[in-house]
Each structure stands twice: as structure tokens, then as C-alpha cells.
Amino acid sequence: MTLDRLPLLASGKVRDIYELGDRLLLVASDRVSTYDVVHPNTIPGKGAVLTGISAFWFDRTSHVIANHVVSYTDGIPEEARGRGVVVRKLEMLPIEAVVRGHITGSGWRDYQASGTVSGIELPAGLQESQELPVPIFTPSTKAELGTHDEAIDFARAAELLAPVAPDGDGDALATRVREASIALYRLGHEHARSRGVILADTKFEFGLDPETGELVLGDEALTPDSSRYWPADGFEVGTTPPSFDKQYVRDWATSSGWDKTPPAPEIPAEVVKGTQERYAEAYERITGEPLSAWLERTRA
């Protein structure tokens, strides 16, 4: 079996989704996007890093919430080993669940303008990158390819969830998503700090089991694409710390003069190399093993 013999259901910014009857095959590519637009060249090895880090976290958070993973080896074509995962089918929720533990990025810009993030009032006098008193849930919409996600408040998230929520209770489902997201973030943040890394913020995607209505964690978990990781060494409040994640590409894209609309520009070779190194280091820092160990396990 090869990928080209499987029905391709969807191709997103990073992942390709294939039909496997009662299951799906998700394959993480080496594509990279910034501002929701895919760049024409890739970051070699990125797909394996995303899948391997997700595997690490799915395994360690299953006591917090169920996830969609079925297998990283069975039913996966050879060319997708290390990048692919067979998952159960879910009814994916129409929001992204963002948790912020530090004030940075778009949250910092919103705070500077209004003192709030997604309708949540924060203490006065915070500095850029400062850790918040408690992590906050700041959901967003799910944008179509080539368009931008939009930050929303809890009430709007509940409205969007109501049509898919059991008994139409969007508030209850939004509350469950918020609780699960913050619990996952806290676990991830604690582990990351033990490995010399700060998890500043992250986003999750959830779905409902179509038969039981169970809330399930899907897509990816605490990866460099869905999270902002900073080295703890040398961290200073009031600065923009260097990242282990695709923020390195995003920073280049921001300074390149590109207007953030399609088509995205080609990423220079030195930025590709630097990003590749950061992804590999993120994997090693978080999991405590080299990426080659993950590839060996999935390709054996």
C-alpha cells in the first residue's frame, strides 16, 4: 500500500488526510505556514517532529482526556512512517482552543490596546512575555486555508459550539473544552520547565465521538507548530524570547516586507536551516531522546 493508492480527503496547511474506511490516516508534511498561508518550500524533517512530539504528549495526557490515536505503525504506508498516524473519526469542533500562560504575540498586542485578551481583563502593568497569574483560555475561530483565525471570547465560542453540542448546550461544551485545555497546558508547562523549556502558549483541537458524544483531543498536541516554546536559560520579562518553534519563520516573514496575503514568499536557505535545527532541538528537549529514536521505532 502506498499513499497514492489511498483516497485523499483533504490537504491542509500541514497535514494530509486519507480515508481508511472506519478510520483516517493523518500524515504530517514538511510544509510550513505563517499567517495561515503555506510557503512554497519546506522544512525537512518537520513532519516527523510534529508527529513524534504529538505521540509523546498524547501518551502522557490520556489520563486527562481521551485522544484520537489508533496506531503509528499499523496501516501506515512505508513512505509515511514517522509522519503518519491512524486515528478514529471525530466530529471536529468549529473552534481552536488556545491557552496562554505568558502574555506575548497577538495577546500582548491586544493587552496593550485594551488591557484584555479575548474579553478577559488582565492585571495592569504586565510586561511583554510575563507569566500570567493563571493560564487563560482564549479561543479562536477556525479559518479557511489562506485566511486568518479570529480571536473570540468565551460567549462567542459557546455560540459556535451550540449546534454540535449534546442537547445544544454550547456553554457546557465550551466549559468542558476550557477545563481540558487548561489542564493540558498546565501538564505541558510543568514538563517543559523540567526540560529547560517554557511553554508560553498553545492551541488544541477537539472533536466529539459520533457514537458516544465523548470529548476527544485530536489533530496534534503541544507541538512547535501549535505552541510557543522558549528556552528557560536567559529568559527575561520585557523581551521577545527566541523560540524553538516556527516563530523563527514567522519573525522572518514579518520582517520580510510580505503583506501576509497569498502567495507566501520562498523561505531563504539559512532560515530553513535554522528552523530545522530548532524543530529537532524542540523534539530532543521535550522528549529526552533524539529524533532518530522516534524514526527507528516507527519504521522498524
From TrEMBL:
Matching SUPFAM superfamilies: SAICAR synthase-like
Top enzyme class: ligase
Segments forming domain SAICAR synthetase/ADE2 N-terminal: 9-263
Superkingdom of origin: Bacteria
Natural source organism: Patulibacter brassicae
Entry protein name: Phosphoribosylaminoimidazole-succinocarboxamide synthase
InterPro entries in alphabetical order: SAICAR_synt/ADE2_N, SAICAR_synth, SAICAR_synthetase_CS
Catalytic activity line of the entry: 5-amino-1-(5-phospho-D-ribosyl)imidazole-4-carboxylate + L-aspartate + ATP = (2S)-2-[5-amino-1-(5-phospho-beta-D-ribosyl)imidazole-4-carboxamido]succinate + ADP + phosphate + 2 H(+)
